[in-house]
Fold this sequence. Notes:
Pfam families: ATP_bind_1
Number of domains: 2
Family: Belongs to the GPN-loop GTPase family.
Number of strands: 7
Bound molecules: guanosine-5'-triphosphate, magnesium ion
Number of helices: 11
Helix content: 40-55%
Keywords: GTP-binding, Hydrolase, Nucleotide-binding
Subunit structure: Binds to RNA polymerase II (RNAPII).
Strand order of the largest sheet: 3-2-4-1-5-6-7
CATH superfamily of the largest domain: P-loop containing nucleotide triphosphate hydrolases
CATH class of the largest domain: Alpha Beta
Strand content: 5-15%
Largest sheet: 7 strands, parallel
CATH topology of the largest domain: Rossmann fold
Function: Small GTPase required for proper nuclear import of RNA polymerase II and III (RNAPII and RNAPIII). May act at an RNAP assembly step prior to nuclear import.
Structural class: alpha/beta
Amino acid sequence: MGYAQLVIGPAGSGKSTYCSSLYQHCEASRRTMHVVNLDPAAENFDYPVAMDIRELISLDDVMEELGLGPNGGLMYCMEQLEENLDDWFAEELDNYLDDDYLVFDCPGQIELYSHAPVLRNFVEHLKRKNFNVCAVYLLDSQFMTDVTKFISGCMASLSAMVHLELPHVNILSKMDLVTNKKDLEEFLDPEPPFLLSELNQRMAPQFAKLNKALIELVNDYSMVTFIPLDLRKESSIHYVLAQIDNCIQYGEDADVKVKDFDPPEEDE
Length: 268
Ligand SMILES: Nc1nc2c(ncn2[C@@H]2O[C@H](COP(=O)(O)OP(=O)(O)OP(=O)(O)O)[C@@H](O)[C@H]2O)c(=O)[nH]1
Ligand SMILES: [Mg+2]
């Protein structure tokens, strides 16, 4: 059994930064995990890259040879990943099977989470290889300042949830930038009636029915919980990781992989 996090969310929401902080956190607690880069456009990494989609295909080459722009180029690269699941990716994955913990740093293109088939097939592949997979959806806390943004964030996350059909953890990133935590608290685990009244206040009366339906939807899918993440605090990273581990049942087997300790210096 392997374990995997699929780290997704809009461009700039903090996915790669999360991956590197998580890596450091695990390193410090002598826990083994590997970060995989699935973003063909990524250039700099603050974590050791265990597998790299750029070894499969180069975005620059694709853009140049096919005359595609950055977005089309990226989607083409992701399609190539999909085509190569049973060869390139399977071979790479062979290095990491039993009890390994992989974290996939994905690109931020929203179409990957809403309708493009690549990530779905990617996840299916991981499941076939006996991985327990969890989607970790990051949303920038800077965009959680009012109810309309909250709803739109929920909808984007919900669309990823129905598209990928995975256990799903929502994270509110960049909490260190939030100056007024009180404003945010009402969105962390909000009451539906509160959301509805806020939404009704914001929108013209003809939206009342839509608002009600939206809030019900968000509520029915129990989408309304976001875990705040402040990367400055080890306790915050620890908490987020514990929630995700729980989702993928990591640590429930007695023999989870712990990094070998350096042998203690022996006194002669
Ligand atoms: N203050 C603060 N800035 C952050 C945090 N996380 C990310 N950032 C900044 O936000 C920007 C985007 O972060 P990334 O980690 O590259 O975001 P990403 O989701 O990987 O972006 P894409 O790969 O382009 O989709 C960078 O400038 C980061 O330094 C955080 O927790 N706090
Ligand atoms: Mg990134």
